[in-house]
Amino acid sequence: MSRYRGPRSRVIRRLKNLPGFLGKNKTSNLGEFRVVTDQSASRKISQFCVRLEAKQRLRFNYGLTERQLLKYVRIARRARGSTGQVLLQLLEMRLDNVIFHLGMASTIPAARQLVNHRHILVNNRIVDIPSYRCKPKDLITIRNRPTSYNALRVKSPGGDKTPDHLTISLSEDNKPVGLVNCIANRESVNLNINELLVVEYYSRKA
Q1: Given this model, what pLDDT does residue 175 score?
Q2: Distance separating alpha carbons of residues 151 and 10, to the nearest angstrom
Q3: End-to-end alpha-carbon separation of the chain, Å?
Q4: I need a labelling partner for 201 at 20 to 30 A (CA). Which of 83, 104, 107, 140 fits?
Q5: What is the pLDDT of residue 130?
Q6: What angle do CA 18, 111, 86 make, to 5 degrees?
Q7: For residues 186 and 91, is the Cβ–Cβ distance under 8 A?
Q8: Is 42 in a helix, a strand, or coil?
Q9: What's the pLDDT score for residue 192?
Q10: Which domains does the chain carry?
Q11: Residue numbers in the chain where pLDDT is lower than 50
């Protein structure tokens, strides 16, 4: 299981708000009161540093390792269309990210834990791979057992605005049911990032 176990405050202070890392309704003010010295204010930020920060924001928001992100970049390069947009589509269609956007989990790491512990059904089949790529018309539900509903820990899934490519509803027995309508588009990404910087960072590796 790919999981970041280091200090969270340090990542939040350096990379600012990460919806998948913190949660949709949480923002960080850790970096607002940092004292800026004359030396740091006059220092020029290199283009490599800008691209590195964009790559790190994308990696930590979706909870990926360096190897996983590089693999997604290589897949996006071989696909048709803009490499940056294809990269974001691949990440948005991951099962853990879809569960997060449906409101079944407060963060992407929490959604990954639900998947790893075999609480999630895709088309009535257990899927325990967080990187599973969801497809249009996929039906996402919770396993019919008490431990799965206790692990959900969300009183009202879909409370926030759900992206257009997803639909959340309740079944007759008041159980959350998620539906993938179509492939995610650029507007579905709630992370403030320039994906072209990430592609440029990996231009020599991919």
Answers
A1: 83
A2: 28
A3: 24
A4: 107
A5: 95
A6: 60
A7: no
A8: helix
A9: 86
A10: 8-91+190-201 (1.10.1050.10), 94-182 (3.10.290.10)
A11: 1, 30-41
Gap between the Cα atoms of 204 and 51, Å rounded: 13
* DSSP code at position 30: T
Which ranges of 121-184 would DSSP assign to H, the alpha helix? 146-152
Which tokens is 141 given? 């539900």
Nearest to 57 by CA among 9, 16, 86: 16
Residue 31 to residue 71: CA distance in whole angstroms: 31
Amino acid at 99: I
What 3-state class would DSSP assign to 80?
coil
Closest C-alpha to 63, from 94, 42, 34: 94
Mind giving me the DSSP string for 107-137? SHHHHHHHHHTT-EEETTEE---TT-B--TT
Q: Tell me if residue 183 falls in helix, strand or coil.
A: coil
Q: Whose CA is closest to 117, among 142, 154, 91? A: 142
Q: Regarding beta strands 125-126 and 176-180, do their DSSP bridges make them parallel or antiparallel, or are they unpaired?
A: unpaired
Residue 125, φ and ψ in degrees, nearest 5 = -125, 140
